[in-house]
Amino acid sequence: MRIFLISVLALSFCASAFAQSDYQEMLDAARAFDQAAAEKGTKPAYLAFLADDSTIFRPGAVNGKEFWNSRKDSAAERLVRNINYTDIAANGLLGYTTGGWQLFPDGKKQPATKFGQYVTVWEKRNGKFFATLDIIVNHDPMPMSDSNSIKPTDGVKDMNDRGWSPADASMNFLRDSMTNEELSGAYKKFAADDVRLLRDREPPIIGKKRVVDETKHYKSVAFPRKVALFQSADMAYTWNPCKFENSDEGFEEGNCLHIWKLRDKKWWIVLGVFAPTVNEMKPQLKTKYKGKNPKQ
């Protein structure tokens, strides 16, 4: 029994050590991308670090490599990104980075003209990390976070030897967002305490209570026809087209991304993104009179 226990502890230590090494490799790849985008230009950076089958949103889902190969960008364009949060799966094969970005269309000699937040999903393939998904939201100028302060998520890593899938959790989340509980009720049920939510025109919304509060009055109006899911050990991501009825503003549709983590035998949302593409205002009611107009 003692020998067996020592073997289990040794295997656990090795898995943790490999994951930590992979985490550093992923972080190095993300920082190399950021450096290339800031120094060599946006297009060269994306072409160098995107996987051949990568997905970006412009505004719908398109192949990242094909998009940037066909785009004629200004050679002076520079993208500055700062990582402020990141995590990796227990097996070290899937992870993500998120933070702020600023776009300098004419190089850094001129002020930035666009600002926002991003999420990049990284996968390790053939011993090297590639960006397989990249999504952004826009907001007004705000201070960039310090990239040197980032740390991997604390907590126990789960190799998910039981093979638990996040499919049921993700489908139930989508269904719950269509009920009377609305989107806030779905997040209340599935969001982790440290969840982060990114959406247009706002800085990151951090913490379950804030996310639940900020998503009140949003209700999904249709189950998505397409849902993409990718899982590795205790981490997964899902993305799908989404459309919400906002009781304050009308209808909003766009792209939704969720990062899931397996914690204490349950899949939780640790990061959500809503990148809108269309904002349809509610039609104004017009009163029609039959016969003569009423007297003023």
Number of strands: 13
CATH class of the largest domain: Alpha Beta
Uncertain segments of ≥5 residues (pLDDT<50)? 1-15, 280-296
Largest sheet: 7 strands, mixed
The SSE order reads HHEEHEEEEHHEEHEEEEE
Helix fraction, binned, reads 25-40%
Radius of gyration of CA atoms, rounded to a whole number: 22 Å
Structural class: alpha+beta
Layout: helices, strands, pairs:
Blueprint: H1 2-39, H2 42-49, E1 50-57, E2 61-63, H3 64-70, E3 78-88, E4 94-104, E5 114-125, E6 128-138, H4 167-176, H5 182-190, E7 191-199, E8 205-206, H6 208-214, E9 218-220, E10 228-232, E11 235-246, E12 250-263, E13 266-280
Parallel strand pairs: 1-6, 7-13
Antiparallel strand pairs: 1-2, 3-4, 4-5, 5-6, 7-8, 9-11, 10-11, 11-12, 12-13
Helix pairs in contact: 1-2, 4-5, 5-6
Notable characteristics:
296 residues, alpha+beta, Nuclear Transport Factor 2, Chain: A, 2 domains, 7-stranded mixed beta sheet, 6-stranded mixed beta sheet, 6 helices, globular
Explain this structure.
By secondary structure, this protein is α+β, with helices and mostly antiparallel strands. The chain has two domains: 2-149, Nuclear Transport Factor 2, Chain: A (Roll), CATH 3.10.450.50; 167-280, Roll (Nuclear Transport Factor 2, Chain: A), CATH 3.10.450. 27% of the residues lie in helices and 39% in strands. It has six helices and 13 strands. It has helices at 2-39, 42-49, 64-70, 167-176, 182-190, 208-214, and strands at residues 50-57, 61-63, 78-88, 94-104, 114-125, 128-138, 191-199, 205-206, 218-220, 228-232, 235-246, 250-263, 266-280. Strands 7, 8, 9, 10, 11, 12 and 13 form a seven-stranded mixed sheet that branches. Strand 12 (250-263) and strand 13 form a beta hairpin. Helix 1 (2-39) runs antiparallel to helix 2 (42-49) and helix 5 packs antiparallel against helix 6 (208-214). The radius of gyration is 22 Å and the shape is globular.
